[in-house]
TrEMBL record:
Keywords from the UniProt entry: Cell membrane, Membrane, Transmembrane, Transmembrane helix
Protein species of origin: Planococcus citreus
GO CC term (a single one): plasma membrane
Compartments, record wording: Cell membrane
Keyword Signal: no
Residue ranges constituting the CstA N-terminal domain according to the UniProt record: 2-364, 381-524
Membrane topology of this protein: Multi-pass membrane protein
Family to which the UniProt record says this protein belongs: Belongs to the peptide transporter carbon starvation (CstA) (TC 2.A.114) family.
Record-level GO BP terms: cellular response to starvation
Name of the protein in question: Carbon starvation protein
Top-rank lineage group of the source organism: Bacteria
InterPro entries listed in its UniProt record: CstA, CstA_N
Transmembrane spans: 6-21, 62-82, 88-109, 130-152, 158-180, 187-207, 227-249, 270-288, 300-321, 341-362, 403-426, 447-464, 476-500, 507-530, 542-560
Length: 580
């Protein structure tokens, strides 16, 4: 099949989904009110509650949820063939992700900007709330470890991307002050910042001494490094420390100082990146050389496909962003459709081109099969294959290979960093909420909660020993990340369903994807935790077994509690002002 035709069909379905289905959900189900006073106005504090233009907020939301996952998950899932991956990305985005992201945003806005974890108390009771908060806490901890691991490894593999990525920070701070202190529009400054980043990328990809190659500085791959760890492990450790210092600062600053302007830059970066890849697709007109299906796979796609592709189809982390930060910045309630649903569509567009970049990379099916000979091989090669495939697509616009690979790595790192510091901010919120719950006032303090979030994330990513040796925490946690992410999405859809039922509205649009997602994820998780991988018998996987077993039991407990609430006709703790 021709890759252009495949991309055109996917994009057409996305357009139909946003134009018609999201409008139906907004007007007939959520019944958005343009005159409703949103939490951003009601609780405006200049730190977390900040009324924000919908285009700027879309930029923050989109880049916060995008990260590296909608690239990495699809690039792995094509192991089972491109057809199931494309179908799940396209229809999962339209009927599951869009409703989930939109719904958690609308639910939070109607409930004082509270997160889905806090709202669980009102919807399914105190016990359900505490269990849900612990699941969320474990998930964001894994998100921090996984994305820090991805960024550190990309800095090591693509040293030319370091300076362009870090130059974005002072540029974003300048834009934040210009926009909120001098009332300057963000658009032109953000485009200038993007031009500076990409100009720096072109120069650093061509000039050797501008590439921050820590491995080379330590004597090459055979160097002794710090404390005898070796050059690569030492470089990895340094980058993790640098990243943790950065996210500590970024997650404690007011959102307008760094979070919003940097994410606005990244939104343009993503648009430019997508434009390069899709235009490159038109000019290169590649053929799909990967198979549509892979009947000889050593691991069944059913149900593992639905947890391998999380971001890009549906992801529980999106609900944390929608209800954790975006709901506190929504200017008008009617903007929720644009920010929430269109944000999910944007991620689907990214996941689609990620699939196409990989399945058109290889000269023939034999070459694809050699790279994707097993699921383990696919997991290890997926991200690298995407960067290489994206570089080839960009060559259709006459962009040199070294420049293209640097720009693609910058895009991946920028989105992963955005997700990382948003996740640390969310983890700080959750730790503070648990401090309130268990009457530990020290945990309610911003810097105490942030310190716990940063130090625990750092420990999780560098301490576990895995197949890649030191610093394998992010690699080890990736399999569990997908399952816990999808379970969180299922629980959030269940909460929205309870809310809609209490309001007397049609909740089938959320209950149907919830049942499907819960069934697939619990099935996959049971196989992984208790049967297939037997983590408790493998020393390096003990941590995964413990995390997985806890999440599995907590989820079943929450589902039973929520089922009672869904069937109940009572309306516990709801105020008419917030919910009607």
């Amino acid at each position: 099949m021709n890759a252009i035709a495949l991309a055109a069909m996917g994009l057409f379905i996305f357009v139909l989904g946003y134009r018609f289905y999201s409008k139906f959900v907004a007007e007939k189900i959520f019944k958005l009110d343009p005159n409703y006073v949103t939490p951003a106005h009601r609780y405006k504090d200049g730190v977390d509650f900040v009324p924000t233009n919908k285009f700027v907020l879309w930029g923050h939301h989109f880049t916060s949820v995008a990260g590296a996952a909608p690239i990495l998950g699809p690039a792995i899932a094509v192991y089972w063939g491109w057809l199931p991956a494309v179908l799940w990305v396209v229809f999962g985005t339209v009927f599951a992700a869009g409703v989930h992201d939109f719904g958690t945003l609308a639910l939070s806005v109607r409930n004082k900007g509270q997160s889905v974890g806090t709202l669980a108390h009102r919807l399914i009771g105190q016990r359900g709330k505490v269990l849900f908060l612990f699941i969320i806490l474990i998930l964001v901890l894994m998100v921090n470890a996984v994305f820090a691991w991805v960024i550190a490894n990309l800095f090591i593999s693509y040293p030319a991307s370091v300076i362009p990525v870090f130059i974005q920070i002072p540029l974003a701070i300048w834009i934040g002050y210009a926009a909120y202190k001098r009332n300057m529009k963000m658009l032109i400054p953000s485009l200038i910042a993007l031009a500076i980043m990409y100009g720096t990328a072109v120069i650093s990809s061509q000039v050797d001494f501008l590439q921050i190659d820590l491995v080379r500085y330590m004597g090459g791959e055979e160097g002794a490094g710090l404390f005898g760890l070796g050059a690569i492990s030492s470089a990895f450790f340094i980058w993790i420390v640098v990243l943790m210092i950065y996210v500590y600062i970024a997650s404690t600053l007011p959102v307008w100082k760094l979070l919003q302007p940097r994410d606005f830059i990244n939104s343009h970066q993503l648009i430019v990146g997508l434009a390069i890849l899709y235009l490159g697709l038109l000019f290169t007109n590649p053929e799909i050389t990967a198979p549509a299906t892979n009947p000889g796979a050593d691991v069944s796609w059913f149900p593992l496909l639905f947890i391998t592709i999380a971001c890009g189809a549906i992801s529980g982390f999106h609900g944390l962003v929608s209800s954790g930060t975006s709901s506190k910045q929504l200017d008008k309630e009617t903007d929720a459709r644009f920010v929430g649903y269109l944000g999910a569509v944007g991620e689907g567009v990214l996941a689609l081109i990620s699939i196409i970049a990989v399945i058109t990379l290889f000269p023939d099916r034999a070459a694809f099969s050699a790279s994707y000979s097993s699921f383990a091989d696919a997991s290890g090669a997926g991200l690298g294959n995407f960067i290489e495939g994206a570089t080839i697509l960009a060559s259709g616009l006459m962009i040199p290979g070294s420049v293209a690979s640097t720009i693609v790595s910058i895009i991946v790192v920028s989105f992963a960093a955005t997700t990382l510091d948003t996740s640390v901010r969310l983890m700080r919120y959750i730790i503070s909420e648990l401090g309130v719950e268990y009457k530990v006032p020290q945990l309610e303090k911003k810097h105490v909660a942030t310190s716990i979030a940063v130090l625990s994330s750092m420990a999780l990513v560098i301490l576990p020993e895995g197949p890649n040796g030191f610093g394998s925490g992010g690699y080890l946690l990736w399999p569990l990340f997908g399952t816990s992410n999808q379970l969180l999405a299922g629980i959030s859809l269940l909460l929205i369903s309870i809310w809609l039922r209490k309001l007397g509205r049609n909740y089938m649009i959320t209950i149907i994807p919830m049942v499907f997602l819960m069934f697939m994820t619990l099935w996959a998780m049971f196989q992984q935790v208790f049967l297939q991988w037997a983590w408790y018998n493998e020393g390096s996987n003990t941590l995964l077994f413990v995390f997985g077993a806890i999440i599995f039991v907590f989820t079943l407990w929450i589902i039973l509690t929520a089922a009672q609430a869904l069937m109940s006709k009572s309306n516990p703790g709801f105020s008419d002002e917030d919910l009607k």
